[in-house]
Amino acid sequence: MGDYNYGLGAPPHRRWPVAWYNPAVLLRSAREMVSTADQNRNLDRRELYSGDFAAFDATGLTKGDAFWWDFVSDTGDGGNATYTVARAVLAPELSLPGADALRLPAGGLLVLGGDLAYPGASTEEYQYRFNEMWEAARPAQDEAQRTVLAIPQNHDWFDNISSFQRHFVDDHDDRFLNAHTPQSRSYFVARLPHGWWLFGLDFALLGDLDREQFEVLRDLVRTQVQAGQNVILVYPEPYWTRPLGDAARPGYAKRYQRLEALLLAQGARVRLRLAGDLHHYVRETAAQGEGGLDFDDALITCGSGGAFLHPTHTRKTSQAKRMCLEVDEQAMTDDLRQRVRVGTVDKPDAAAPRGYQAQCRYPDPAQSRYLSWRNWRALFQSAGGLHWSELLESPAALWQNIVQGNMLFPLLLGVLYWAAVYCNAFVFSHSFHADGFLPPAEFARLDYGSFLALWVKALFFSPLAFAVHAVLLVLCCAIAREDGPRVGVLTGVPHALLHMFWAASLYWLLSRYGQFHLLAGSVAAPRYPWADAASMGTALCHYLLPVMAGLLKGAILIVLGAAIGGLTFGCYFALMARCGYLGNNAFSPLAWQGYKGFLRFCIDAQGNLHGYMLGTDRVPQRWQANPDTTAKRPIWIEAAGQRAPEWRVRDQFTLPR
Questions:
Q1: Residue 140, Cβ neighbours under 10 Å: how many?
Q2: Nearest-CA neighbor of 47 among 205, 212, 276, 214?
Q3: Is the pLDDT at 604 greater than 70, yes or no?
Q4: Which helix (H) or strand (E) holds 653?
Q5: pLDDT band with cut points at 50, 70 and 90 for residue 631
Q6: Which residue, 15, 433, 523, 528, has fewest beta-carbon neighbours within 10 Å?
Q7: What gap in Å lies between CA 419 and CA 134, rounded to an integer?
Q8: Sequential DSSP letters for 205-248
């Protein structure tokens, strides 16, 4: 947890986005993920639920002839984006400009798709990044009685969903927005009007349903879902962006694949698979009749609720997606034979005849590619969106920006550069002259190529130096591995070698042109150092100056290493992101707060499902207290000079009954 301030004194722009390349954040996220994964391996919390499982009847939330509901996911990051989205969701109505001049009322049901607080769930993070932002965004005279259903994502599981349970499972006294939270487990089923069903699923950190969840959902499908009814599946992650089959082994399908097959066998129609997790909006559709199914359906990823932006032009996002219902002949028992597979393919697959076509991406791929280039300086940008002139005027803000921002990562790189040089440079002395090494004072005799050859040779004289260089290699390959081991090796190794090259080059330049050896040897040792005070001072200088010269050289090396290493990482991120790789690892340091939104759905009197993706390209960066002392809500409004968010319908679609 950061050094947070809560309450009315902390407006949204003071609640900075998570700095994902801050070493403390990386360490905490890794520790919590490993801890929770270990707990789930030994005792899955989802298996502790008991009692009957029942579907929630949401048909009573219908207003007039239509049933309205909203879907928001991946909120609880930076205050500006989270607060902007919350204000729009909670507004009684949104009047949208355009040729149709739409007026869309708020839904009586709010569905949260998970990842509600970053970097990991805790009581403090939920309060700071989620609860207070949404509470402050409530409009004046907010008397709406909302119903909230939610599923957890991976970051919600970082505290073993303890915070999620407190907010959304059962009706507690201090529940979120004082809303009705009827679900009794971390997953839910809701009955919607006109034969529509809404399933919210929980994968924990395991990428699949647990046995208990599968069995209660299986029983509900068999006893309550009827042929011809329409089903919406809300997933914690868009599994369809992974290769077809989701790594399920022959003979043992994943439980969610078997659940989808059971729904189709029951005669139900899976019309929409909906998820967050990726922080953008993408809709892909398959036509009626394709693949033997007599209905059209859609895959929608909408994780635009407040977290940093993910690109829409990546290979994972744009790759062709296919679907098939198959019988697995390798299955040992009948209950494992049928499964539905949806995922990416490199080329058309006759075994997966139903294909999906991209209909809308927000932001559009061209803008996504343009934003990629901004990564070159992402590790040095201000954590809270403050201009550097503002930071320089406030030492406290500058210090907070360094400690809580991404700039600690370049500093860590600078320290690694120094460690690589320190461990590798000890052989450059008279002691190793017989092995061909020269002291730094004699580097003028070496051309640069000969020095690099000696530098590589030195790695095999120092196990510590070899280890530090190995750390750089592992770090670069681990970051690049997001798109698979092949990309990790082919791009991570050259990237690591470039950092090693910079470290060696800095040492050569500082040794050859820095003249630090002159400072170290500028005072000769007196013959009798204890004879008098002057001799003692001279002796002290003789011994301290080499130490000071080494410290100065090390400090310069760390500063230059931080600058060069940070820019090298930034340029690597920019290039990889522009080419469609590292959608998460390359865009997280950018922390782009724009292109936020949510989905508003309507089931009309005829039972057709209408979807509206509402988005804004920009969010305000400064807020002030609401001057309307009578209303007192929302607590903050845009500061003077700040443009209000421009909410527009970025995508509109209909799934006929």
A1: 12
A2: 212
A3: yes
A4: strand 648-655
A5: confident
A6: 528
A7: 46
A8: TTTS--HHHHHHHHHHHHHH--TT-EEEEEESS-GGGSBTTTTP
Which segment of 239-248, 545-554, 570-579, 616-625 scores lowest on mean pLDDT? 545-554
Alpha-carbon span 44 to 474, nearest angstrom: 32
Q: What is the pLDDT of residue 537?
A: 58
- At 391 the pLDDT is 62
- Tell me which residue of 205, 209, 185 sits closest to 262, measured CA to CA: 209
Taking the model in full, what pTM does it have?
Answer: 0.91
d(CA 384, CA 538): 50
Per DSSP, the three-state class of 112 is strand
Angle value at C-alpha 272, between 71 and 70, nearest 5 degrees: 15
> Per-residue pLDDT for 388 more than 80?
no
Q: What's at 67, amino acid-wise?
A: F
Tell me which amino acid residue 72 is: V
Task: Kindly report, residue by residue over 77-118, the tens digit of the pLDDT.
Answer: 999 999 999 999 999 999 887 656 788 998 889 999 999 999
Torsion of CA 357, 271, 46, 205, to 10 degrees: 0
Question: What does the angle CA 105 – CA 109 – CA 112 come to, to the nearest 5 degrees?
Answer: 110
DSSP states of 591-615 as a string? ----SEEEEEEEE-TT--EEEEEEE
Q: Rg (Cα) of the chain, in Å, rounded?
A: 29
Say if residues 561 and 506 touch (Cβ distance below 8 Å). yes
- In this predicted structure, the answer to whether residue 404 has a pLDDT above a threshold of 60 is yes
Residue 430 neighbours by CB under 8 Å, 6+ apart = 439
